[in-house]
Write a structure and sequence with these properties.
Blueprint (H helix, E strand, L loop, with lengths): L2 H6 L10 H4 L8 H9 L7 H6 L1 E7 L2 E6 L14 H17 L6 E12 L10 E10 L3 E9 L5 E13 L8
Antiparallel strand pairs: 1-2, 2-4, 3-6, 4-5, 5-6
């Protein structure tokens, strides 16, 4: 490795909690109560949140807000935040908006997602918020929309998702 490459190297350490401990037990807690427990720090966030660096900031029925401080470790080869980062936060937020409507014994999972990128996000963009709202919460299918905005409300990306909704069973719980 050249001297210039060594001098420009960066290091980032990621820690997380055991996902089996912080995973939602859908047989014991509603989606909204689970999300609120994460916001309040009573339940650790899922490992992906620590890896990417986003956090769940608000949760109410049918609406959630995630926050992300963009950084250079999010960059793609074009020196802007990789679209996959915005997509990941959008997916997490939109699915959580749907999850916030689900009672004990019911869970959901993303079936499809469509993302539109409006402008690039950079490290100096500052804190971005991903606001997501449930559009439709049916017994088998639910849809939600989300948008990534900066502190001034400038839009960076928006998306829609479809999730499958399903009942959980005690035997589905992993040991």
């Amino acid at each position: 490795m050249s001297e210039a490459k060594r001098e420009s190297a960066r290091t980032r350490t990621v820690t997380w909690h055991d996902p089996r401990v912080s995973a939602r037990d859908a047989t014991r807690i509603s989606g909204l109560d689970y999300l609120r427990a994460i916001v309040e720090g009573k339940i650790a966030p899922p490992p992906i949140a620590n890896l990417i660096g986003y956090r769940l900031a608000e949760a109410e029925i049918g609406r959630v807000v995630f926050e992300l401080e963009p950084a250079e470790y999010h960059y793609n080869p074009f020196a802007s935040v990789h679209g996959g980062i915005a997509s990941t936060v959008l997916d997490s937020a939109m699915t959580s908006a749907i999850l916030s409507t689900l009672p004990i014994g019911v869970a959901c999972s993303t079936l499809e997602m469509k993302v539109n990128f409006v402008r690039p996000i950079f490290g100096d963009t500052g804190l971005v918020r991903c606001e997501a709202k449930t559009i439709h919460a049916g017994s088998r299918i639910a849809t939600a929309e989300g948008k990534v905005v900066d502190a001034q409300g400038k839009l960076y990306a928006h998306a829609v998702t479809t999730c499958i909704v399903f009942k959980t069973r005690m035997e589905d719980k992993r040991d």
